[in-house]
Design brief:
The complex is a heterodimer of chains A (212) and B (331).
Chain A (H helix, E strand, L loop, with lengths): L4 E5 L4 E8 L2 E7 L8 H24 L7 E5 L4 E5 L4 E2 H4 L5 H20 L2 E2 L8 E4 L2 E4 L6 E2 L3 H17 L5 H15 L3 H12 L9
Antiparallel strand pairs in A: 1-2, 2-3, 3-5, 4-5, 6-8, 7-10, 8-9
Helix pairs in contact in A: 3-5, 4-5, 4-6
Chain B lengths: L4 E6 L4 E8 L4 E8 L9 H23 L8 E7 L3 H18 L3 E5 H13 L5 E5 L4 E7 L2 E7 L5 H11 L6 H9 L12 E2 L2 E2 L2 H13 L4 H27 L3 E5 L6 H13 L3 E4 L2 H4 L3 H13 L27
Parallel strand pairs in B: 1-4, 4-5, 6-11, 11-12
Antiparallel strand pairs in B: 1-2, 2-3, 6-7, 7-8, 9-10
Classes of the chains: A alpha+beta (212), B alpha/beta (331).
Chain lengths: 212, 331
């Protein structure tokens, strides 16, 4: 029995690497108990998020969005076993890849986000920490807060979070990256403009934003 | 240059605060007077009227406590925003009048920045992730490249507003937060309520509507309603705070703002900090609630990095966002 390695400790879950899960290299996502939350509330949140996440990852794949393969799901243990994706977090490589590659990658991510939204899925935590650059593709991970929704509001929230991430973390390239993302997004989603307009509206809902 | 002394005037909402801070980090006075509405929530005009009425006596008390006269002040800091227009204007007017009369510079301070800076001073935190929760604000923020970046915030009403409005609806005494906290201790049944986290942002308006509806249904005890409201509202805060802590990798977790006095929330923050190997830093209540010392102290450090606010640019800004403020003293 191979040893599990903790490769990431997310806010919500531990990500463990199993080098030999029935013969394959696999990721185990385990939603640990949150001792700050009431056990009853905690169990309900962890269970429902585990089921929802695995089913949404699968649906995203059907829509042509690169996501890890699901190997096994355990709702009561709040655990999902899935494919290990080789590559780096987009968050970590933005600063070290060239402008051309950067633009290409974000356009591709925009395209896939359009496909995701077109399939009625909102990611819920669309940040550059939840995208892995693998073989030139942007693989979408962590669907922990995703929901089935084709509401323009959920799409706008996704876009707003991505934009906010570009402002807070990738502030040197914010506009360049978002322009590329937007171009890709508009290619694959017919209602892209509506979602982008909503994003602008949502960003103004924060407290004390300049109102027009 | 010797030690400088700064008066800070805070008047963003229902508190009028006057504080005196010295450039060596000493807080000499921190006097707070609170406008208590006869009914309902804060009426901005009534709050402003209160502040104007007690302005003189609050100033005298602050100076007496500090053991100085107005002529010992080297500059005047005031809360320039964000907040309620009428209240802000009252404090700003007093600040301008004092600065002109004494012939000293004026320093406009961002209220949210001040909450974080006094928190750093009071707890010794150097570079914390801060959770700032009050009647008007719900913000998860941390310093990054010259500014306090907002990692998460409420998309509608503030958590304190949610608690206050529910407690009014339920006929609880003012202020709402402590009343809800007391009753919650007696509750034990978790009533299903909407738990709304969107990425790192949260929403409290749906929770307020739902808990109000459950209250009106008469199905539950007030204790259980308060218990459930607190558990859900604070768990949501805990979740976004934990996400931001994991995202930024900061080693200190600062809890500030009036809602930071809540023991249940403190316990959650402590547990999250421990889980991530960060040090929890709780701001003492006198510095966590809206107060003048935080404005005075932020005035001191802003002045120290060359920030001055000429009278003609001293108009208040009720929507002055935290992440629009340059923070040169930390760069």
């Amino acid at each position: 029995m191979a040893e599990l390695t903790l490769i990431a400790k997310g806010a919500e879950a531990d990500i463990l690497l199993d080098p030999d899960w029935n013969g394959v290299k696999a990721i185990i996502k385990r939603r640990g108990e949150k001792s700050y939350r009431l056990p009853e509330l905690d169990a309900a949140i962890r269970r429902s998020r585990t089921i929802r996440e695995s089913s949404i990852i699968h649906r995203a794949k059907e829509a042509g969005v690169p996501t890890p393969l699901i190997y096994s799901v355990d709702p009561d243990g709040a655990q999902i076993v899935m494919e290990y994706i080789e590559g780096d977090k987009v968050r970590d490589i933005v600063g070290r890849i060239g402008p051309e590659e950067r633009t290409r990658l974000f356009r591709e991510i925009g395209r896939k986000t359009g496909l995701l939204h077109g399939a009625g899925i909102a990611h819920g935590d669309l940040t550059t920490s939840n995208l892995i650059s693998s073989g030139g593709r942007g693989v979408f991970i962590d669907f922990g807060l995703a929901e089935m929704s084709d509401e323009v509001e959920s799409r706008g929230v996704d876009l707003n979070l991505m934009y906010r991430m570009l402002i807070s973390t990738h502030y040197e390239h914010t506009e360049e990256l978002f322009t590329a993302f937007k171009a890709g997004y508009e290619e694959t989603l017919d209602e892209a403009q509506e979602a982008l307009d909503r994003m602008n509206e949502i960003s103004k809902r924060g407290r004390y934003v300049e109102r027009e | 240059m010797g030690v400088e002394t700064c008066l800070g005037i805070e008047s963003t909402a229902d508190n009028l605060g006057m504080g005196v801070a010295r450039s060596d980090g000493a807080i000499l006075a921190n006097v707070i007077t609170t406008h208590v509405p006869e009914e309902g929530g804060i009426h901005p005009r009534e709050a402003a009227r209160h502040h104007a009425r007690v302005m003189g006596e609050t100033l005298s008390e602050a100076l007496d406590t500090a053991g100085i006269t107005a002529w010992d002040l080297d500059y005047i800091a005031f809360s320039q925003g964000p907040g309620m227009g009428p209240s802000l204007r009252t404090g700003a007017t007093a600040a301008r009048a004092l600065a002109v009369r004494l012939g000293v510079p004026l320093v406009g301070v961002n209220h949210c920045v001040a909450h974080i800076e006094i928190g750093r001073l009071a707890t010794g935190a150097e570079d914390p992730l801060a959770l700032y929760v009050s009647g008007g604000n719900t913000i998860v923020t941390g310093f990054e490249a010259g500014r306090y970046r907002i990692f998460g915030e409420t998309l509608d009403i503030a958590i304190g507003n949610c608690l206050d409005t529910f407690s009014r609806e339920a006929g609880l005494p003012y202020p709402g937060g402590p009343a809800v906290e007391r009753l919650a201790l007696e509750g034990s049944t978790l009533i299903p309520l909407p738990y709304v986290v969107k990425g790192m942002d949260l929403s409290y308006s749906g929770l307020l509507t739902a808990v109000t509806k459950e209250f009106r249904s008469g199905k539950w005890s007030l204790e259980d309603l308060c218990f459930s409201l607190q558990e859900v509202a604070y768990s949501m805060l805990g979740e976004v705070t934990e996400r931001a802590l994991a995202h930024t990798g900061k080693r200190e977790l600062l809890l500030t703002g009036g809602v930071g006095a809540n023991k249940r929330l403190r316990a959650m923050i402590g547990s999250i900090a421990e889980e991530h190997g960060a040090t929890p830093c709780y701001v003492p209540i006198g510095y966590a609630t809206d107060n003048g010392a935080m404005i005075a102290w932020t005035g001191v450090i802003a002045y120290g990095s060359g920030i001055r606010t000429p009278i003609e640019r001293s108009h208040i800004d009720p929507r002055w966002r935290l992440d629009r403020v340059e923070v040169p003293w930390r760069s």
